[in-house]
Task: structure prediction
Amino acid sequence: MQKIEESQNILNQKKQEERSALLELRALNNTISKTTNNLKSTENKLSSLEREMLTLEKELQECNKQISANTEALEKHLRIIYEQGDVHFLEVLLNSTSISDFLTRWDFLNTLANNNKELIKANEEKIQLMKIKQQLALQKQQSLAELKTDQNQKKKELAVASSRQQTVYNSLKSERAQAEAAVNELEEQSRQIAAEIRRQTGGDSGEYLGSGKLAWPTPGYTSITSKYGMRFHPILKRNKLHTGMDIGAPKGATIVAAENGTVMEVGMRGGYGRIVMINHGGNLVTLYAHTSQTLVNTGQQVKKGQAIAKVGSTGWSTGPHLHFEVRKNGNPVNPTSYLK
Result:
């Protein structure tokens, strides 16, 4: 596989960005959850206010009916008094024909006066009550309007939060897809390289052309930035094999053949970038990836320590370095055990 570790290096750099994005997602989810709860509370209050408004409206209607009834009764009593003309209550009593008639008239006049007072008082109370309830209705309407405004604002906040969450999610999804596609492409390139090595070395007699130990491929630059071996992929969340070692070196630094051999491939190899592959016999092949320039051609015989390429950052790479692989029977093996 083309330096899966190279892709892992890039993904490791994005790990912190992903972590920050996930924290933001959690914060957004919390905001959305709180906003949703607030909206439910607001909706419950709105429903309660609407029920109260309906009840108040019915009470106001009943109050108006009662006032109308009392007003009609009062008007009826006033008409009775009016029909008596200018006759004073005392005249009515003195014109009684008997004690019984006097008492009857007394009761009638007393009842009429009391009824008038009660009707007037009832109307005054009803009118006052109606004013209070009208004021209460107005307050409820204002409260309802404020709650509706608050609800609309919360809906806008929720829409913004949802939009932000969707944007972050889509970005993470896209990055994950790109990372997985890159790793898959690197794995496919690695399989193709293995197949090509086996195809070209299928008739190999097994004779090793070298001296036993490989030379360091970047003279003067020995910093290993990433070792051979399994690595936990930060995005894909599974172990991936880093098929070689990464050696830190500036662009243009000389890359040399690790051993005597025959150049079996020179050119671009997808995520590996520009490569050189050398067959050393005995089914042993070395690969040099991400080069900026190659100095040899396919089929050329090279000697151990001979300049074959220049360090670069072609293909799937974050910066100038050499990705160095050793393959046995086409399969990547740990280069460390072969190097001096």
